Amino acid sequence: MKSNLPVDLSLSQHLVMLELSLLKPNVRASSQMLDNLLADDFVEFSATGKCFDKQHVLSRLPSEMMPDFHNQDFDVRLISAEIAQVTYRARLVRDKEPRPQFSNRSSIWRKTTDGWQMVFHQGTPCAEFTIDKK
């Protein structure tokens, strides 16, 4: 179901850029950058079925071996003036796993006085999809 609230193109591009920044090695390696992007009440349900809070992410991501990501089919919708949802499809390849993992991704972003912060992220396994060659 689509939101009735219009999404400004610049806001949509900004939220997708924030989402993609969380997949950059320099951001993932920086507890301070992660701290700025993730709300204190952040929760993640991973595609593996595990649940993580902000403190766990801050302690894990900076030292984690980064997978190879391919993301496509981004969509942004406003839930309210201060809450937005970003959805997309992801393909992850990890060094120790022989096959790529495919998932549908959804993030909830909240507007604060300091900018937008992610409050929720979920990865749900899905069937393999064709990679866009854009």
Automatic annotation (TrEMBL):
InterPro entries: DUF4440, NTF2-like_dom_sf. Residues 18-118 form the DUF4440 domain. Pfam families: DUF4440. This is DUF4440 domain-containing protein.
